């Protein structure tokens, strides 16, 4: 990670004015984005009945894929819809999740930095030792920061927290989920 941070700082230090590191100017009123990266998720609950201890806790990693489509107001205000999916191979049942939602945000420092906050609905699975598949679903909040490195290409860092996720009636109705996301992203403000 120190090498990655140093490389990013060097790119910013070279020049903000050259065409190679130019900011993607919002020439139209809509935008689209694509992200691919990694996610680290944690799901926890008490008194589940899924194991002898009664508590459920799972920490898993996977691949993240995301699409975004939105509108730009006054060249700096953003409103978008997103769809995210994750997949991983850890544990018996692996990791999968799917999320839909909306975000609002700002283009800061002339578009070099995007900040987004929003929420939506998500579905995920539980990693259990049982042969039966258990899924959970509920609402979540999402924070995201995008750093433009060159012409719309950059790094996205995000956090998503799902609250009061529910499952089958045989399980408790409260699962807390949290995910940290790191992805390479491309934002196009010319569509």
TrEMBL record:
Keywords: Signal. The keyword Signal applies. It comes from the Bacteria. Residues 1-22 form the signal peptide. The keyword Signal applies. This is Outer membrane beta-barrel protein.
């Amino acid at each position: 990670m120190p090498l990655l941070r140093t490389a990013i700082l060097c790119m910013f230090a070279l020049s903000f004015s050259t065409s190679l590191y130019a900011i993607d100017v919002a020439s139209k009123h809509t935008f689209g984005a694509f992200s691919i990266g990694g996610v680290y998720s944690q799901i926890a609950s008490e008194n589940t009945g899924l194991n002898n201890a009664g508590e459920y806790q799972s920490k898993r990693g996977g691949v993240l894929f995301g699409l975004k489509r939105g509108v730009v107001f006054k060249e700096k205000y953003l409103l978008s819809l997103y769809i995210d999916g994750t997949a991983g191979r850890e544990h018996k049942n692996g990791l999968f999740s799917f999320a839909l939602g909306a975000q609002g945000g700002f283009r800061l420092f002339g578009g070099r930095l995007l900040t987004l906050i929003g929420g939506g609905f998500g579905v995920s699975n539980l990693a259990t030792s049982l042969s039966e598949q258990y899924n959970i679903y509920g609402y979540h909040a999402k924070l995201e920061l995008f750093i433009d490195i060159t012409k719309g290409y950059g790094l996205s860092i995000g956090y998503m927290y799902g609250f009061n996720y529910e499952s089958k009636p045989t399980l408790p109705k409260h699962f807390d989920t949290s995910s940290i996301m790191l992805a390479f992203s491309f934002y196009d403000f010319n569509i």
